[in-house]
Amino acid sequence: MKFGGFVPCTLIDYPGKTACIVYTIGCNFRCPYCHNPELVNETVERTFSESRIFTFLESRRGVIDGVVITGGEPTMHGQDLLLFMRRVKERGFLVKLDTNGTNPNLLEVAISQNLVDYVAMDVKAPLSTYHRVVGRPVDIGAIRRSIDTLLSSGVPYEFRTTVVKTLLSPEDLEGIAREIAGASRYYLQKFVSSTILNPQFKRKVEYTDVELEAFRSNAEKYVAFCGIR
Ligand code: SF4
Asked: Which segments constitute the Radical SAM core domain (predicted)?
């Protein structure tokens, strides 16, 4: 596999672990708030080979616990991704997978073959209105299956939602929490429009901290823990 990005060390992307991050190229969604357009549009200028990642890992043995695989959407890489995960595990490192949940088959194989140690799955909207947020036709049955797989598999996981006011109403946020009812960990990710000049516009796209806290506390009617990032 070739990767479109690489970060040698993160303390925040894999809960409780030190990790490096690899970014896969390509995505089957077009979320308007995406921070990685060059990966999604496959216009990355620099790529990183698997062998380079493994050489790096060997040099950090004992310092780094694992590898975060994010994108883009990693599961689009099918067997190549499974092979990469297996090679990481064989070298004794942990694997965290970030996914948009569109490939429950791969998720189930990765979990059943013990190729993944932590999964972070985006739940982008209530299932009935998913297409509005992701900008592409979406197989809702696949998203539902990925949610159910994580709820029942025993592998550590989190669900997470990027909260953009113009895309998700308070009712939508409650709807998402209801659809992942029983989850152990759920995060509301604050959408920050840092480069926006006009504060009026900022108020249109960002919820206030008080509003987010109300959503967080409401979500805990359905899930064991809800945090804000
Ligand atoms: S699923 Fe993730 S990588 Fe793909 S467009 Fe949405 S935010 Fe970007």
From this structure: 13-229
